[in-house]
Amino acid sequence: MDLKDIWQSVLNDIELNISRASFITWFKNSSLIKKDGSTVVVACHNSFTKEWLENKYHKLILKSLRNTNTEIKAVEYIVRVDVKPQIKNTPTKITISPESIPLELGGYAVDKETGLNLKYSFENFVVGSNNEVAYAAAQASGENPGTAYNPLFVYGGVGLGKTHLLHALGNAIKNRFPKKKIKYTTAEKFLSDIVSSLRTKTIAELKDKFKNLDALLIDDIQFIAGAEKTQQELFHIFNALYSHNKQIAFASDRPPKAIASIEERLRSRFEGGMTADIGLPDLETRIAILKAKAQRENTLLNEKIIETIAKQVQKNIRELEGAFNRISAYIKVKGKEPTQKEVESLLSDISRSSTKTMTPKQLLKAVVDFYDLTEETILKKSRSQELVRPRQVAMYLMRETLKMSFPNIGEKLGGKDHTTVIHACEKIEKELVFDTQLAQEINSIKEKIFAE
């Protein structure tokens, strides 16, 4: 067997032992380039992949190699950027059409025509057990838009990678099909465009613009809850695109069935294709994310520091990258790596908010303190507006922050019926779309909750 056949046999064996998403992420750009006696050399396209194969998959690789060729006793790994992948999976390369002028927003190149962030791709998305289904579905949709998974609905908590996947999907379509018309937008911007066009009586032109797209990607779709006219127009746009096999994708912080105050016919459209969730990243994935970021930014961090960051920041990738940036800034200012004690000190406030356990009683106290009430007062059976709103905010936060059941929330709030709790949560969610003062109040309460 020649080197190519040996490595193909190894890849076939490895693919049976790990997830498809992990297999594509770590092995697609690998190649067996040399055999010298009992030692073989595996080439990787970057140092991050090289390190990952050495540390995580070495035993599996060596075992598969020895099963293929008993002469092989050792494996060496090198980086070679000219490696040709043996897995047939075209890497994403972002291209910009001449008429599309990139803008620089917050350090990111944004395509003015499509709204796509050009730095987000499948290539730089770190795959783990928490997101591999969503990743695979988005990647398949990028390869076969409108036919693989349509619509695609990705949901999960804040800062877990939903937006990255939407942009990666759009960029993949743009690369493979340069003539296709693609639009990424947020639900807030979509809603604003609908309201503005209704006011200026240009709704027909706006709808035509959306209906002529080949791919429509809407982020934070939960924010159209309660906006009846926007939902009505989205329903018609959806049907027009879907009937012509155009790719539609949504991202949300919750599954379709949990989005309050949306039309049932629209909810059924959301659920009609592929629904995939993104969960919290495990320790291994968090370490991989940090190492990938370190490599992109040419920042040298030892294993111990990376592991410390990954252990202290557990729930949010944005916080994870924020923690990395804090350590990176320290290194640039001080000219040296921080000690273990200094790392823990630098991350103390982040780790507290990330790992703190909150009880319903503590949350309720934060609410009554903010509104200058007492717990006894807020539990009264009163319909006074000065009590109703704080009570509804408390119910909403117990549901959103603590993930409590509606009956349990009702029990904690003086024995209220679960239907009352559902109404309160839906009302607050609906008002948050338009009421900036309410949003500020809730953010202030959240800050107070995690202040200590």
Can you give a write-up of this model?
It is found in: Cytoplasm. Residues 359-428 form the Chromosomal replication initiator DnaA C-terminal domain. Residues 115-331 are annotated as: Domain III, AAA+ region. By secondary structure, this protein is an alpha/beta fold. It folds into four domains: 1-77, DnaA, N-terminal domain (GMP Synthetase, Chain A, domain 3, 2-Layer Sandwich); 120-275, Rossmann fold (3-Layer(aba) Sandwich), CATH 3.40.50.300; 281-349, Helicase, Ruva Protein, domain 3; 358-449, Chromosomal Replication Initiator Protein Dnaa, Chain: A, CATH 1.10.1750. 53% of the residues lie in helices and 12% in strands. The protein is built from 21 helices and ten strands. The protein has helices at residues 3-15, 20-27, 47-56, 58-68, 132-143, 162-176, 187-199, 203-211, 228-243, 264-270, 283-296, 303-312, 317-334, 340-346, 348-355, 360-370, 375-378, 385-402, 406-412, 418-432, 436-449; strands spanning 31-36, 39-44, 74-79, 102-105, 108-111, 152-156, 182-186, 215-219, 247-252, 274-278. The strands form three sheets. It has a five-stranded parallel β-sheet with strand order 7-8-9-6-10, sandwiched between helices. A three-stranded mixed β-sheet has the order 1-2-3. A hairpin with a 2-residue loop joins strand 1 (31-36) and strand 2 (39-44). Helix 7 packs antiparallel against helix 8. Mean pLDDT is 84; it is low at 87-107.
